[in-house]
Structure formats: C-alpha cells, structure tokens
Amino acid sequence: MIYHIVPRTDWESISGDLYRGDTLESEGFIHCSTAAQVADTANFLFAGREDLVLLQIDPARLTAEVRYEDGGDGRLFPHIYGPLEKSAVVRVTEFRPGEDGRFSFP
Known about the structure:
Largest sheet: 3 strands, antiparallel
Distance between the termini: 14 Å
Strand content: 25-35%
CATH architecture: Alpha-Beta Barrel
Strand order of the largest sheet: 1-4-8
C-alpha cells in the first residue's frame, strides 16, 4: 500500500474523480509506504496539526506512474507522477497526534 497525509479540508473539497496536490501534476508527489515513513513524515511536516487524514492507496488501481525513489536517507518512498484517482483510495483514516503531540501510525 501507499499512504498519503493530507488536510481533511483538502480531501473533502475534491470535486470529480482526481486529486491533484500542490505538485502532483507537474513533478509528482512523495508518499509513504511504511508505518515508520508515515510517522516520520507527519512529525516532520505536520507537527501539531489536528486536521489531517491518512489516505491508503492501492497502487494496482493507479493509472499514473509510480517510482520508488530515495528520500535522501537511503529509504525508498513511492513517488506518484500524475493525478491520484479517488477510486485508488481504499481507506481514509482520521490522523491526529497522540497526547505527547507526536504522530504514530494508526
């Protein structure tokens, strides 16, 4: 599976069948494929945010190209080049930090 963290309002405001993040259309968007990547990314980019959802994406349902690329620390992150079809999202989960303010994989 591929995971993507997004503000709930961004996800709920999508009209049509395609999600286009800030850079998804032009240069792709880095996603996560492991629990550790999800937690690390959330704690680095979204510290203290309470308005997030975690999308679980089935790569077999994507028509866009997926490449696994080095995130700079030797770990491979899935990189989706093109729009994300809503039909590829198989689960949406509320994603909030714990009492200590840090995120962990739900």
